[in-house]
Amino acid sequence: MTANPTHAPLSLAQLVEWTSCVADDVRAGLYAIEADADHRWHVRLHRDDDVDVWLISWTTDQGTQLHDHGGSSGAFTVVSGELSETIWTPGAEQLADNPRHQGDTVVFGEHYVHDVRNTQPGTAVSVHAYSPPLSLMNYYDVDGHELVKLASVWTDDPEEPAPALRAVS
Q1: For residue 155, how many other CB atoms are within 10 A of its CB?
Q2: Tens of pLDDT along the chain (169 residues)?
Q3: In whole angstroms, how large is the CA radius of gyration of the chain?
């Protein structure tokens, strides 16, 4: 019996390559996209031991909770529409809001805390990649200048609804 090889996380450049290439395929019409005003529509396009890749649509006012990806690094590319990304930066006076336009790619390391949402009319579409594949999400709030963990959820689905959130002691 041989041991399973150890898989190293993909580099940030490799994650960008994944989201950019898949975004090109989405623009070429290779994937059907749905929009659901009640729940963010999403579908896993690929998963192996190194990476998982998701296609997500965001109708107006849909978004995530402030979260990290439980030790996974990632990237996302906006295929169409515009998303707003709020980023937690330790020591900053406030959360930073950043518009993410069609064609923009965001890449992040394993300790990145953010909230993504569609604040514009119409549906936005994005491709996300995580390495190692997603297994945990942590949810947060900000109290003054401090990040407060509200919950941790074991999941392989980045769009699983956040639990009823309250501060974790």
Answers
A1: 14
A2: 333 345 789 999 999 999 999 999 999 999 999 999 999 999 999 999 999 999 999 999 999 999 999 999 999 999 999 999 999 998 887 888 999 999 999 999 999 999 999 999 999 999 999 999 999 999 999 988 889 999 998 877 777 666 665 544 4
A3: 16
Q: Any bridge partners for residue 98, and if so which? A: 85
pTM: 0.89
CATH entry 2.60.120.10 includes domain 12-134: yes
Q: Where are the domains of the chain?
A: 12-134
Contacts of 77 (CB under 8 A, 6+ apart): 16, 19, 20, 22, 23, 103, 104, 105, 106, 126, 127
In single-letter form, the type of residue at position 108 comes to F
Take residue 105 and report the two structure tokens written for it. Answer: 């790619």
